[in-house]
Amino acid sequence: MLIIAERLIAFHFLSLQNFIQVQEVLLREWRISDRETLAENANSFNIWLNLRDYFPHPYTLIDADKFIKMVHNLGSPTTELAIEVEGKAVGGIGIMIKPDVERVCAELGYWLGERYWGRGIMTRAVKEMVNYSFANFPIRKLSSPVFEYNVASRRVLEKVGFELEGIARQAAIKNGKIVDMYYYGKVKD
What we know:
Layout: E1 8-10, E2 19-22, E3 25-28, H1 35-42, H2 45-48, H3 61-72, E4 80-85, E5 88-97, E6 105-112, H4 121-136, E7 141-147, H5 151-159, E8 163-174, E9 177-187
Parallel strand pairs: 6-7
Antiparallel strand pairs: 1-2, 2-3, 3-4, 4-5, 5-6, 7-9, 8-9
């Protein structure tokens, strides 16, 4: 059963209290105490199949420790948030601001533990991350590349107002197969 709460958005930028809550989904900073649930939920072939190769598989406690340490070194406001459901960090969402002349654009990426798929969690998380990103970073655009076979992720982006900007044919290799990349974008209103 979903716990429905009033929409609450709060930002406390200079502390580890950063969070965004919408319905039963809480976006917040990663904590050292998240290491076990991070490793448990990230250690999935199906998740790895939809992410860049730098996301390891298998995903171990050592990988979780390295990731949390890296995120804590990024500074504030953070660009990488945990997705908390039912009191546990069960996914991640973040942006990577592009360098040089593209510094007004950031790439959005996200993942969610498999047992939480199909509940609308990621749609809510992406919507709030978009709002957070445009409000707190000097960017005009968010982009998100998606493997051709990741229809669920494409639908999430479309639901929150991203538009398909192009398809790059045979532009990536994942799990030994050449695949098309779908490029989505959303411009700040």
